[in-house]
Amino acid sequence: MGADFVMLSLAPLLIGICAALACALPGNFLILRRQALLGDAISHVVLPGIVLGFLLTGSASTWPMLLGAAGASVLAVALIEALRRAGVENGVAMGVVFTTLFAAGVLLLEQTDTSSVHLDVEHALYGNLESLIWIDATGWGSLLDWQALQGLPPELPRMVGALLVLTVLTWVFWRPLALSSFDEGFARALGLPVAAIGLGVSLSAALAAVAAFDAVGAIIPIAMFICPPATARLITDRLGAQIAWSLVFALASAVSGFVLATYLPLWLGHDSAVSAAGMIATVSGLLLGAAALLTPFRRNMA
Amino acid sequence: MLDALTLQLGYNATLVALGATALGLAAGTVGAFLTLRKRALVSDAISHATLPGLALAFLVMVSLGGDGRFLPGLMLGSALSAAAGLWVMGWLTRRTRLTEDTAIGAILSVFFGAGIVLLTVIQTLSTGQQAGLEDFLLGATAGMLRSEALTIAAGGALVLAATLALRRPLLIAAFDPGYARVTGIDTDRLDRALMLLVLAVTVTGLKIVGLILIVALLIIPSAAARFWSESAARVVAISGGIGALSGYVGAALSATAPDLPTGPLIVLTASALFTLSLFAAPARGLLWRRA
Amino acid sequence: MSPFDVARQIHSPLSVQDLTVAYRGAPVLDGIHMTIAPGQMTAIIGPNGAGKSTLLKTCLGLVSARSGLVRFWGDPLPRQRARIAYVPQRASVDWEFPARALDVVMMGLYRDLGLLGRVKAQHLDRAQACLARVGMEDYATRQIGQLSGGQQQRVFLARALAQEADLYLLDEPLAGVDAATEAAIIAVLQGLRDAGKTVVAVHHDLSTVEAYFDRVFLLNRHAMAEGPVATTFTRATLARTYGGTLPGH
Q1: Which bin fits A242, alpha (ψ -120 to 50), beta or left (φ > 0)?
Q2: How far does C22 lie from chain A, in Å, by closest CA?
C-alpha cells in the first residue's frame, strides 16, 4: 500500500465511497415512501440532460452538463407528477417518462459529435471510476502537499460537497422527513408542507444521482439508492439506526467492491481489472441477500 | 424516409421490420395485462436481469468452441438469468418486509451490475469476437441475419398466441383477484404465467430494442391505449396495435440510418403515440375532459 | 351573522358555516353548519358515505372545500393549529415503518421541538406519561407494527395527548378495537373532557352513543340535527339521518 495505491486507487476509492454514501442517504426515504424506483428513473434521465447541456453550450466543461442533468431530473420528476394527475398509475408514469427521456438522450448522443468528450452510452451506464487517478501523487505525503492536492480529480471535491449538502439536509429536516414519511395525514394536520417535503426528497435523490453520474455512471446510484437502505431495513426497527446501518453497508459495498474489482482478477492471474461500478453494485446485492437469509422471518400482521 | 415506411429498402430491412412489428404486437398485448395487474415495473427487473445470463451464455458458447453470438443460445442464457432474478425478487418480497418496488430496484441494479462485471471480463478475453454484446443494451438491427429476424418474429407470434389463449382468466384476475380465486382461477399460477410471458417478450426483444428500453415497449403502448377505451378487452387490442405500429415505424426509420440504435427509435415512436393519446384520445384524453 | 352568532363562533373551538365539499362534481357535504360546544364530548354520526371523515379532514385542511368557512375559536386554522390534535383513521400508515411506540408519541411533540430542538429528559418523560395514560407504558420500545390493532390505536391517541391540545379531533377511534381498548380510550377522552378540553369523534356504534358522549351531530351529506344526546339522539332524528333503515337500534 504505497505510492502506487495513492496514485491509482485512493481517489477512485474515495469517490466511490462518497457516491455510495450520498446515494444511500436519500435512498432510505425513497424506500420508506414507496418511491424506490424514482432513483432508478432519475438516474436514467441524467443522460439526456448531460447531452443537452453539452449541445446547448457546445462546451465539454462540467458545469453546463451538470446543470443540464439537474434540469432533466427536475423535468422528469415534474412529468411523472403531471402524468399521475392525468390519471396514469405511478409505476406506469415512471416507466413512460424515464424510458422516453433515456431513448431521446441516446438518440441525441448518437447524432452528436461527442468525440471531444468521453461521452458514450457505456460510460453513462457504468462510468469509469478506475480512470480517476491522482496523477500528481507520489505517495501518502502528497496528501499534505498543496500542489499535489490541486491535481486531484475534480470529481472528488464535487462528490464530497454533494455528500456534505445531503448530510446537512437530512440532519436539519430529520423530524419533518420522519413524520411525513410515516403518517402524511398527521403531518399535514400539524401544518407541515408535505408536498414540498416529497419534492425535496426527489430533488435530493436527483442531486445525489447527478453528482455521482459523471464520476461513476448510473449503476452505482441505482444500486446504492436501494440495496444498503433495504439491507438496513431488515436488521433494525429504528429509523436512526436504519440510516446509520445503510451508510455502513454503502461504505462496505464501495470498499470491498472496488478492491475485488481491482485486485481479484490479478490474484486469479488475469492482468486487467473488471468494472468497479458493476462489482460495487454486485457486493451491495450480496449483502442484501445475506441479510434476507440471516434475519429471522418476520412480517407484521397488519 | 418514405421509402423506409413503405418497405422499399430491400429484403433484409423488410424482414427486420416484420420481426419488430411482431415483437411490438406481442409486447403491447402482454404489457396491457401487466399494467392492468398494476405490476408494470416488474418488467424493468426482468429485463435488466437478462444481462448476466447473456454474458454467461456468450462465455459458455465461446469456451465450447462455438459462435458466442449465436442468438438462440444468448436468448436461452438471458431467459435463465431473468427467471433467476424473478425468483429472487419473489423470494425477497415473500420472506422479508421489503415491498415489491424495493425488490424490483434491488434485482435490477444488482443483476445489471453483475452483468457489467461479466462484460468487462469478456472484453479482457482474447476471443477475437468480443465486440457486439453491448448491442444488446440498446438494440441494433444493422447487419441482422435473416434467421435472427425470423426467430424474433416467431418468438413474438408464440407469445401473442399464448397470451390470447389466457386472455379471459388474465382479465378477470386483473380486475378482481378475489373474485377470480372464488371462481376457481389459481391467481398465483396465473401471475407466474404472466411473468413468463413478459420474460419471453423481453428475451425476444433483446436484439432489436435492447434490455434497457424493452420495458418501454411493455409499458408505453398500454398506457397510451388506456386513454382510448374504458373496456379492458379493447385496451388490450389497442395496446397491441400501438406496440406493432411502434415496432414497425421504429425499425423502418432505423433502416434509413444504420448508425442509429433501433431501440430508442421504437421507444420514441411509442412515446409520440402516447403523447397523442394523452391529449387527443376520445375516451379519456385531456382535451376532451371537462375542466 | 348576528352579534350573538359571532360571540358563539368565537367561543366555539370549531365552527363550520355553509361548508360544501364535492368529489368529481358530486357533493359529499352540502351546506353544513356546525358549532361544536366547548368542554364537551361530541359524536359525529351518520350512515356510511355520509361524509363524516370528510368533514373532519376538511376542517383540518386535508381536503379542500368548494365553499364555506371553518373557524377554530373564531380564527382560521393556521392561527390556532397548535391547539388542535388529530387522530386519523388507523388504516393510513405503513405498519412496517421503522418506528417504536415511543417514537410515534414523540412525533406529537414536533411543534415544541421544531426542526433542531434538542430532545431533553422532560420530553421523553412527557411521551412516556402519555403512553401510560393509555395503558401502553410497557410497550414503549415495540415496533409499531408488532402491536395489536387496539394497541396501535392507543399509541395514536397517546401521540395526540402529547400535543397537549385544547381540541381533539378523532376519526373513528373505536373502529375495530377490542373491548379493553375501547374502555381505555373512552376513559382517556372523558378525562380530557373533565379537564375542560373539547373532544369531537367520528363514531359509528349507535348503541354506545348515549353512554359515551354528551352531544351528537347527525350527518348525512347535510347536517341533520345537532344538540345534547338526551334531546337530539332520538328515534325521529335517527330515522331522518339513516333514511328509515336503522341498523340495530
Answers
A1: alpha
A2: 18
- Residue C124, C-beta contacts closer than 8 angstroms, at least 6 positions apart: C102, C106
List pLDDT tens digits, range B175-222: 878 778 877 788 889 999 999 999 999 999 998 899 989 999 999 999
pLDDT digits (tens, 9 = 90+) for C186-218: 999 999 999 999 999 999 899 999 999 999 999
Name chain B contacts of A270, Cβ cutoff 8 Å. 124
| C-alpha dist (Å) from residue B110 to A28, B85, B114, C124, C185 | 17, 10, 6, 42, 48
State how beta strands C67-71 and C14-23 pair: antiparallel
- Chain A interface mutation, best of C89, C107, C116, C151, highest count of A Cβ atoms under 10 Å: C107
Which has the closest alpha carbon to A281: A209, A218, A234, A214? A218
| Domains delineated in chain B | 2-279 (1.10.3470.10)
β-bridge mates for residue C215, sequence order: C42, C228
CATH of domain A2-301: 1.10.3470.10
CA distances from A23 to A10, A30, A125 (A): 20, 10, 16
Closest to B23 (Cα-Cα) out of B252, B248, B268: B248
pTM above 0.95, yes or no: no
User: Cβ A184–C92 below 8 Å, yes or no?
Assistant: yes
Q: Are A264 and A251 in contact (CB under 8 A)?
A: no
d(CA B126, CA B130): 8
